[in-house]
Task: structure prediction
Amino acid sequence: MIDTMFGSLFGMVSSPQIMGLMLVAVLIGLMVGVTPGIGGRLSIALAIPFVYGMDKVSGAVFLLTMHAVNGTSGQISSIMFGVPGDGDDAATTIDGHPMAKKGEAGRALGASITASGVGGIIGAVVFAIMIPVLEPVILSFSPAEFFLLAILGITFIAFLSGGGNIFKGIVVGLFGMMLATVGLDPVSGVGRYTGEFLFLWDGLSLVTAVLAIFAVPEMIALATRGGSISKVSMATAKYSWRQLLDGALEVPRHWWLVLRTSVIGAVIGMIPGLGGSAAAWMCYGHAVQTSKTPERFGHGAVEGVIAPETASNAKEGGSLLPTLFFGIPGSSGMAVLMGAFLILGIQPGPAMLTDNLPLVWTLIWALVVGNIIAISILFFVVRWAARLTFVNGLILVPFILTLVVIGAYVSEGQWQNLVVLFVLSLIGYGLLKADWPRAPFVIGLVLGKVAEDSLHKALDLWGPGFFLRPLSLVLIGLIAATVAYAVWKEVGTARQRKAEVA
Amino acid sequence: MSEMEPVKAGFSAGRAVGFLAGAIFAFAGTPALAQSGADFYKNKTVTYIVATKAGGGYDFYGRLVAEYMQKKLPGSTFIVKNMPGAGHLIGANAIYASKADGLTIGSFNTGLIYSQLIKLPAMRADLTKMSWIGKAASDPRVFVIAKQSPIMTFDDLRKQTKPVNFATAGVGSAAYVETLIIARAMNLPIQLLTGYNGNEDQLAMRRGEIAGTGGSRSSMADFVKNGYGRFVAQIGGKEKDVPQLETFTTDPKAKTLIALVKSQGEVSRLTVGPPGIPADRLAALRAAYKAAMEDKEAQAKVEKLGRPLDPAIGEEVEKMVKEALDQSPETVALLKASIKKKKRK
Result:
């Protein structure tokens, strides 16, 4: 076992061809990740023609690395401009962008880049440890648990990120869940709120919604306010290498959180059906819930950057598990990756462990090494990139809005999404102006569908008593505890305010 | 070139007549006609619409067909455009509505035949009128039972007294419609649970929540090969390892429905253009499609992926589609009833 493990690592790093391919893959993965609307799924689909000529190991390492580092660069625009590339990055925006406004873009980027790298590496470790217990863990999550996990995630964010006002969080969260019902009813197949529009049959485009709720309002605010994204000047912010490094050091400072969110992220990634964005959002919620000072979140808490970033890279290791050993892909990106593996002559299934163990280890190491390469490249690049937050906003806004419009179009290839972008942007700007939280909207939209779909399935399978399963009861306990904690906290703040007034 | 004259005249007389004339001439399959069409494609760009997102089966076959048709039509450039959404309807409607100049063709799910049969309002494409170029594969349908279930054969399934849970994608999806109409026609004790998209049915079978599913053989092949389940019946296909479903019934009504599903399985991974593509260009497209499917390199690519390849060209596909769409009012009524809202038990 140990022989194979390190033999694979040595085989990989000693081959200039594989290392060269990895470098190219990391560069492509990072570039694709930085552009909103283009996901890892598309990049793999487009890269498939190039792997025809490669051997098994090179091809698999190339594609996996490209996919794995995709989430590492999406955070750059989320933090600096409030422009998330997809659903996962939106979670990073909530605290990352306020940090940039405070002149701490360097610190936020340092923390997020390190966090994603470390998350990716821990995800690979979780992958290796989980192999023996893969079956029982994956098979213990049924639609009943999916439903409760989704409700738990929504509860975390709605109750805790309202900035001391539960009511606002719940209203926005429910609004997100309501918009999640747009599309064909999963049970009856009847169109809901779709009118005559075919493009609404599959529901609202998540990328469009995320760009409208987060990116556009920030840009309008920046343009009307004037000045640069960072409200303090470069000199006052003491922007330097040191800030980046300081951000990076936030990761070991919060090592316990990093470990937990990486493991949670990897496990969520492992369970097919919950969806990739769920990992980042659940971990963001977990960070808020376990924080002693949850009121800091949404205003530039570094934990709010670290948690979703570790999760979104850790989930890559997790989602590779069912793909490789069950032949059941954990996400749509993994489904495309699995197709590419077949081209290379790798047949996913339980036999991978017995016949192809060296390859499995090579893939685990590819996740580790790929993440390290990505961190190194980004550290070098973002030093200059972060300076953009000190540039006059009027120069930046047109460029970024163009990027946003392109992102909303290319993610689904439908012009109608530009209308949706416009309408939702108005709502997003309204929320920003009125100082209402925007995060619950996105989590409601992301998890609302999972919640509805799995509730239907659970009811079909077990009837109304479906939540009496042991794992379900634990999750219900967590939901109740979160609600109780939030209410208790709210009552406490209200009393304090009264006391202050008196 | 003498054959060209009547075709041109036919077009000026109207689209429908032109199409008929075109079909007749294409059927004659004159090489000269195809050659004059092939000349047209020099320095032209053809858009190939795939009705799904990039990645996945439809995208794979679409890109393969586009790549090799470009090779077989000298001087042409094929670009693939993904137009996903609404269960292939957006892509299908777009192909149907495109200009019939032979520069836009594409691919979508054959299951839209059901949508046309029940006259789904959102389905604007009329499959009987479209310019059929070819199909790349056959994908027989199978009934799969999970490993842990005591049901070993199709007869066991029929003898169950309690309803057996079967997973399927959403109401109205081709898999749902097919499983439901067959279960009803053969009085199978099947309880259909919907909303299992992609591979979710396989995972649910592994968890033991559901006992079986109906689907295409190629999508379930690995699941069965890995020992997680077994095939108990098959509709269509040349494989001999699974009994054909039609051998389990003598009822003519059930046989008609099985035949409908069988014809669906035969026309898989189709390539089609809008109604009224000029006959010479359609002939050239069909010739290029045929040559693409016979290309050794293309065949090797399909084989490497373990995907099925069983091509048919032009008129043959058109005939299959028209036959599938020619159903009795009873069958159509049954189909319509099957997509009605399900009652919660």
